[in-house]
Design brief:
Order of helices and strands: EEEHEHEEEHEHEHEHHEEEHHHE
Distance between the termini: 29 Å
Radius of gyration: 19 Å
Strand order of the largest sheet: 5-4-1-8-9-10-11-12-13-14
Strand content: 25-35%
Number of strands: 14
Amino acid sequence: MRIVTITLNPAYDIHASAEDFEPFRETLASVLSREAGGKGINISRALKSWGVGNTAAVVLGTENGEEFRSELLSAGLELLCFEREGRIRENLTLHTGGRETRISFSGFRTDASVLDEIESAVKADEDTLVTFTGRVPDGIGTDAAEEFLQKLKARGARIVLDSKSLDFESICRIKPWLIKPNQEEISGYFGCEINSAEKAAEKAAEFYRGGVENAAVSLGEKGLLMACGEGIFEAKPPEIETVSTIGAGDSAVAGFIAAWSEGKSPWEALGLAAAFGTAACLTEGSLPPGKETIGRIAAQVKVRRLRSSV
């Protein structure tokens, strides 16, 4: 099985610390790290840390793309690169006394032609799993993104979708193999506040009935819920001292894929997803969690079936 992660909108993730941050005044901050990142890249890194081979398909801006590419290659990632004029964007995360403030900048502009290039290069078939994560960048309409994913699906590829750019109806038309919205994102899909595990389970079930094979919802430190053909399941991780939540959701997606690649059941995959996501919270920035840490946490994750039917 080939695994391909797609990152249309990569970014340099910059982490800085400021002790005495106050809005509307000058603040002295120290840079903690600057990493080449993006949701698909985060998934690729996490999969690689577990020993699962994959290819990262990345769109690069010509102004700073070579540096970005070099950093990913030095991390041992296998790449498919597609270039567009402009500059790769930067995301700033400011750490202030245990809290995080994130500022995202816009980057290069592209168009739907890059989707045709990716489709031709990936050559998807029934032995391919493709992740499509993050916001659809400026210049690519959501209709074009949906059509692209439908083409991959028609070729037999499994689709992993984690993008707030597509709405409930679009997702149900695509019928992906896996989705993993967080609490804020699933609230946005349904236009109401999803503030309890029970409500999250109900909405995950709606996605499943709409055609999503595995509909998982991340509830942060409370773990994950999932609706699938075997019922509704809950995975609760152990309590930890969180260092950073950046990339935790992407690592959770990687954990589900990793477990599936090993022939695990959907509920076992949910448990490993919770372990990956929790372990990622113990690392600085978007760095992937280590295999030993994931294994230690996985032994403490509790998975239970909430309902036998959806």
